[in-house]
Design goal:
single chain, 142 residues, alpha/beta, 5-stranded mixed sheet
């Protein structure tokens, strides 16, 4: 995971991600997990309140996500959470959000940590918000 925290979107969030994908392929890595942003691959949703102030960030994520999907041979999983909240995790998620929302950071970390346990998450984009379904139950259904 690497992020510019809004200070160098092109070099870190877009091209930095691409460079790490290239490095992974060069050394024979097969599985690549990318932390992205909610609806980053769906620009038509960026005008929603909560996303409309993150357009440049989502553009960087859009290009990184699409490079991973279309320009690599990596078995990928892209996790697209809503806003990251510094609060206690709930262990509950919504993996099919229609709106913008938030995620406690510990819940996002738990999803990232468990991805390798769920082969059904390969070559998928997973959008997530805080929700009502236990993480493991939701991941089993992806």
């Amino acid at each position: 995971l690497a992020g510019s925290r809004g200070k160098d979107l092109l070099q870190t969030d877009a091209f930095g991600a691409v460079k790490s994908m290239q490095a992974a392929e060069q050394v024979g890595v097969k599985r690549y997990i990318l932390l992205s942003s909610l609806f980053a691959t769906q620009p038509e949703k960026w005008n929603q309140p909560g996303l409309n102030q993150l357009t440049n960030y989502n553009i960087a994520k859009f290009f990184a996500d699409n490079h991973l999907i279309n320009q690599t041979k990596l078995d990928y999983t892209i996790v697209q959470p809503g806003g990251l909240a510094e609060e206690a995790g709930t262990g509950l998620v919504d993996f099919a959000p229609e709106k913008v929302g938030r995620n406690p950071i510990p819940d996002v970390a738990e999803v990232l940590e468990k991805l390798l346990q769920y082969p059904n998450t390969k070559n998928k984009v997973i959008q997530m918000l805080s929700g009502t379904e236990p993480i493991d139950a939701g991941m089993a259904k992806l």
